[in-house]
Design goal:
492 residues, Beta-Lactamase, 4 domains, 5-stranded mixed beta sheet, 15% strand
Amino acid sequence: MVGPRPHFMNVRPSVFALRLTASLGAIAAITWICSRTIQVNALTAGFAYLLGILGIAATWGLIESVIASVAAMLCFNFFFLPPVGMFTISDPQNWVALIAFLCTALVASHLSDREKTQAAEATRRQGETEQLYALSRAILLTDPSQPVGSQAARHIAEIFDCPGVALLDAKTSEVYRGGADDLPGVEPKLKQVAVQGGNISEPPLFISAILLGGQPTGSLAMKGLSLSDGARQALLNLVAIALERVRSEEAANRADAARQSEEFKSTLLDAIAHEFKTPLTSMKAASTSLLADVPGLSPHSRELVSIIDEETDRMNQLVTEAVRMSQIDAGKLRLERDALDVAALLHRVMEPFAAQCAGRAIRVHASPELPRAFADPELIALALRQLVDNALKYSPPASPISVSADLEGERLVIRVEDRGPGVPERERSRIFDKFYRPSRATDRVPGTGMGLYIAREIFRAHGGDLWIEDADGDGSEFCAALPLPKKEGRNK
């Protein structure tokens, strides 16, 4: 960005000629007054010339005052230094006086012009600051229902009195315009600058990249707008902040909408679960009563009732899983912590699986000396049931299952080990994702793909974790960790 041009380049030639004529006329007037009207001495005339030159420099500028200084020096020599009426000097000391006069006039002109220029620059910067403040205020008050790019372009054109503005949002590739001039053909240049960065200067058009964090997020073209480098960069920063603020608000709105959707889903599933659990409880009670209290059932009828009883349990488990998953997704999983005897909990968890474990070797090892964990018993039991059910489904019918709990450092680790085919390395990063099921089991093993996800989220909600390791030999080992109160962990 170039600096401000000299003042004589900013005025019409006729006006500049008029100023020069007026400056020379002022010197002529001082000469006439000092030599003909009041007839002062050379010293007084010299001061009069200096005052006139200072006035010219302060009013118009350096070029006029320099020309006036040369004219004043000639008049001072001709009319006031002996021999008067001639452009010669008889006394050598008068040469010194004449040269001193000329140097003083030139220096005074320069200083006066510099002060004037600095004052004008300060006024210009003040105007730019006021314009930038007005733009920042307008951007803060943008209407969220309208495109921010369109509003920003319009505000720039109005506040900076710019005839043409074009703003490219790189994210949407949309070009927004402001001002009376539509700047035809500017789109390719805007896209070039947005991709490559930098600037394009084609006076009176100037195109600059809009940067945020050092990366181009768009570009801005302005026609006929003269700004300092600092003001231009501040303008670009304001536009970048406006675009980013809108994007942040959009992301926050999407996140809020997603959160409300999850909360609605959780509420809906809670209501549906309640409606499902009532008839499921009745069905379970009826099937259990038939199996226990009606000894005369035929083998075929008993088999059908047993299927009803088992599938009722399965449906009840599916409803529970769906509700828990919706609570986890909505961030509404509430822990009701209590002192938890892990050894007793493992035996209690294994009881419902007695029928499924027929013919298997089931090993449950948990020392009664283990410290008590501080956790939600219901949720931890649900998570462990998911792990045991997963081991039973994915391992051969006659293979053993091992469930153990040990103290490892400051945490209690529960391990569920099976002798199934194991989990391939390429699938381990996804095994805990929602609805993900191993490719080898999609058709032959029933399930929803929610169990491991729910189990891991429950342990993480307690401050622990769930991961998978290779078992000794074939199979998989799922490891669940629960943190212990620090005092208990150290004592043990």
